[in-house]
Amino acid sequence: MLIFDAHLDLALNGVDWNRDLRQCVDDIRAQETTLEMTEKGRQNNVLSFPELQFSKVAVCLTTLLARQEQPINHAFGWTSPHACYAMAHAHLAYYRAMQADGYLKMLRTRSDLKFHFDAYQANPNTTPLGFILTMEGADPLLTPKTVFEFHEAGLRALGLTHYGTNRYGGGTRSEVGLSLDAIELLKYCDELNVTIDMTHLSDVSFWQVAKHFRGRVHASHQNARAICNWQRQFSDEQIRFVIDRDGVLGVSMDVIMLQDGFVRGVTKPVVTLERAVDQIDHVCQLSGSIRHVGIGTDLDGGYGFEQTPADLNRYRDLQSLVAIMQRRGFPQPDIHAFFNGNWMRFFNEALPE
Ligand SMILES: [Zn+2]
Q1: What is the rounded (10 degree) CA torsion for 182, 185, 191, 194?
Q2: What angle is formed at CA 252 by the lines to CA 167 and CA 98, rounded to 5 degrees?
Q3: How far apart are CA 216 and CA 264, in angstroms?
Q4: How far away, in angstroms, is 118 Cα from ligand 1 center?
Q5: Residue 6 C-alpha to ligand 1 middle, in angstroms?
Q6: Which of 343, 227, 251, 299 is nearest to 13 (CA)?
Q7: What pLDDT sits at residue 90?
Q8: What radius of gyration do the chain's Cα atoms show?
Q9: pLDDT along the chain (353 residues), means of 10
Q10: How high is the pLDDT of residue 265?
């Protein structure tokens, strides 16, 4: 089954983590093991370009990700907006270099997406991974107007915040709302048809975006509080809002979003991909159909298989969702819609002509 994955952090791995994603998963693991790199997530990667090709990932959204953090010794992030801006450009340069080398293909328009998907379907072994450029946290935007520059470079989706608060508003684990700059930024996103990714908004910010933004919204890597009860997940009311705006929510494979009470670096994953299907089922129950749920794995998003479902060791294991969904009574067209059809429909409408 062809996969549309609405959330990967490929440049985070290729640039910040210095992984050569042209290698197979085993070679990257072996190198990090040999070098005794024991920080969280090292030696435990689940993806690379050959792995994504083997797994039949036709299209993804991949991030520009550079969060501003005050402490100079913070494990993740940069201290100034300017450094965040520069790192976002480094991520962009990585994607451009990988495109020049035939590993990636940027999709900017509806016709790019359709043409690429058809080509991938016809020749999955020789067609590069198509990507729609997104930004996770607006920290690299020096001012709201900086979005025009990134849009020109291909940016088509934007999440305002990440963990904590930034200059645009409150994100995960915060209860801060939007800044005035965010209201201005939302206006430009509406003008540019940049879709807003509701993932990683604080609850206050979420409902402010709902009020101020009239354009298309989605939630790229987003599970439900009903499945895993803490603020990173959406309440049923928030899920219903995305459904009512005809958005799509991507099921994430990070167990901090699937396993209740999971503590990073302490708890071992016990949930399996069955839990991800519980998540799919939950969105279906709220909307009455499969239409609003897709894949948004977040795999290798700053962690490895120490933090994925117990039966997911490599990206390819995602394909076992097909059998689980079949056994749990999802008809074949619904499985298809979940794997790629729903995101294809969404971006066929949301991308510019
Ligand atoms: Zn994220």
Answers
A1: -90
A2: 75
A3: 33
A4: 29
A5: 11
A6: 299
A7: 98
A8: 19
A9: 98 98 98 94 97 98 97 92 98 98 98 98 97 98 98 98 98 97 98 98 98 98 97 98 98 98 93 98 98 98 97 98 98 98 98 96
A10: 86
CB distance 293 to 248 below 8 Å:
yes
Q: Which CATH superfamily is domain 3-350 in?
A: Metal-dependent hydrolases (3.20.20.140)
- Interval between CA 65 and ligand 1 midpoint (Å): 9
Q: Which of 242, 222, 202 is nearest to 301 (CA)?
A: 222
Token digits of residue 199: 């993932």
Q: Distance from the CA of 287 to the center of ligand 1, in angstroms?
A: 24
CA of 122 to the centre of ligand 1 (A): 32
Q: Distance of CA 18 to CAs 31, 65, 66, 146, 252, Å?
A: 11, 15, 15, 27, 24
DSSP 253-296: --GGGTSTT--TTTSPP---HHHHHHHHHHHHHHHSSSTTEEE-
Each domain of the chain, given as residue ranges in start order, spans 3-350
Contacts of 106 (CB under 8 A, 6+ apart): 95, 99, 112, 130, 131, 132, 133, 154
Give the Å distance between the CA of 69 and the centre of ligand 1: 16
Q: What is the pTM of this model?
A: 0.98
Ligand 1 centre from 162 Cα, in Å?
7
